Amino acid sequence: MSARRPPRPGRTQLRVGRLLKAHGLKGAIKLELYTDDPERRFTPGSSFALQVPTSSPWHGKRLELAELRWYNSHPVAFFKDVPDRTAAEGLIKAVLWVDQDAAELPEEPDAWYDHQLVGLDVQRDGESVGKVARVEHLPAQDLLIVTTASGDVMVPFVKAIVPAVDIGAGIVTVTPPAGLFEELPEEPADAEPAEPEHDDR
Asked: Which of 44, 54, 65, 72 ranks highest by number of CB atoms within 10 Å?
């Protein structure tokens, strides 16, 4: 279950990987794959948009793949302009996105564009709890930001919590854990033990 974000009409971006940690001294970086087709997505010359904090020197830049190798069944990437371990460490936790023609995308039952999700009614047990205000793409998962009467709630966009999205009906069904949409009642403080009764007889 995921959201796509279209950069312009007719195009979209797909999240294909995340950089985990530096490997060796020559700029290699271990890679977590979010694609079932790494041979196609990670060919020499492939260009990736970077999702990094705005404070990062890599913000707004792209990475070009030089080579993808496998070490102990784990993918390790070498990128142009990442010559050493210091440069590699500056990219840790970056998320890699690729541009894609929307018309070429296969139909995926559990993937939606951000604009399809924004504005949908969020319901729990058939009752409305708010509306989707926006989608945030984080390294580990996507989040639905749901506006409720008491403020915004961050809902992990995973099947266990968001079991159904019905674009036609305009409804997102949620089964949130206790406390996600409301404050849990505080545990009552333990009552003071009663003083023992004395028998004066």
From this structure: 65
Give the residue among 54, 53, 51 at the shortest CA–CA distance from 62: 51
**In sequence order, what are the residues at sequence separation of 6 or more whose Cβ sits closer than 8 angstroms to the Cβ of residue 43?**
65, 68
Specify the pLDDT at position 200.
47
CATH topology of domain 113-173: SH3 type barrels. (2.30.30)
**pLDDT reported for residue 172:** 94
Q: Which residues contact 60 (CB under 8 A, 6 or more apart)?
A: none
Q: What is the pLDDT of residue 195?
A: 55
Whether domain 2-104 has CATH 2.60.120.810: the reply is: no
Name the residue ranges covered by the structural domains of the chain.
2-104, 113-173
Q: What DSSP state is assigned to residue 172?
A: E
Q: Which amino acid is at 181?
A: F
Close Cβ partners of 81 (under 8 Å, ≥ 6 residues apart): 63, 64, 87
Asked whether the beta carbons of 134 and 152 are under 8 A apart, the reply is no
